[in-house]
Amino acid sequence: MPLDILKIRKDFPILSQQVYGKPLVYFDNAATTQKPLKVIDTISEAYKMYNSNIHRGVHHLSEKSSEAYENARAVVQKFINAKFSYEIIFTRGTTESINLVAFSFGERYIREGDEIILSTMEHHSNLVPWQMLCERKKAKLKVIPMNANGELILDEMDKLFTPKTKIVAVTHISNSLGTINPIKEIIKKAHDRKVPVLIDAAQSVQHTKIDVQDLDCDFFAFSGHKLYGPTGIGVLYGKEEYLNEIPPYQGGGDMIHHVTFEKTVYNKLPFKFEAGTANYIDAIGLAVAIDYLTTLGIYEIAMYEHELLQYAASKLQTIEDLIVYGNAKYKSSVFSFLLKGIHHYDTGMILDKLGIAVRTGSHCTQPVMDFLKIPGTVRASFAFYNTKEEIDVLYEGLLKVKQMMS
Ligand code: PLP
User: Which CATH class, in words, describes the domain spanning 5-30+298-405?
Assistant: First the structure.
């Protein structure tokens, strides 16, 4: 069934406000998404009614919050079809999930001279942690190149593998270009050479149906706040065999089974990777966001967002001197562009005064901007609560930018 967008918009109180006297047009969804009332109410209710630290108390409130937290884990497990709930580790977000793997996998498996394969279009979160690991271990990064459309050149990837390749870490969807990468093919290429793969799914779980068992990825990272859930909560999925092999990332409460001054025996999965008080309230909120999305239907969301992207592409590209960056065959709802001769920052500032929120800059993908030889882009990223009328507002806004800057 097609989505009832006007009804859906009522679930997001933030969308009905005015900015500088103009109705807000929120096109910064790749940076963070807005939260449905259900999520906001769940968090408020948890603090009002049953807040209590998890896993440690025998009392009623602690049992209730522990149960809700573990239920959230089960919701995430089902959402991405992980085999076991203990393969779901709650983290602060994609960045922390990737840092965890770069550290713990690195400690266990990376030695001097080893190689790690990334792609040109990685977000800094899936680049800098690996670079830090390479510095620590004297290992080396290798980069899958991309073509002018912003698509990875997979034939070139084949040439990067050597017996020293220890892991491949790639993004599923590029946050600055919108490219949807053929991750199943990438995973297969790596597995054929017995190399594990981490998928940065920060931009994909909210737009596409995910089945980690079908993908056969070894690690999979995403953030709650880009999935219509709270900030400060994210997920790392890892295959049991790897999570059992690699050491903990942080030490502290909850991640231990037994402690003496001589030695600590670590807790079982997933607690081994969840040191200290977990962000249980936001995990509970995340589960509600996932329920909300799955009730709408991920396929329905994907179809509608694709329609928005196509509408934006056909309408905005009629503007003279508008250059689109990211012309991959398979794209998610990210529209990156520049108006010739106008700095992205000026475009963003003028649009802001018209109530339109877009992101400008390098979008934490400086190597992509270096490749394109531009300082940054203007990025409009659409969610299922956006409308074609809002894209019309952006179109008018861009004509105004051109007029003001000419
Ligand atoms: N990876 C990609 C592709 C992203 O788009 C982002 C955020 O924009 C991240 C990683 C980092 O996510 P977070 O800041 O939520 O940890």
Answer: alpha beta
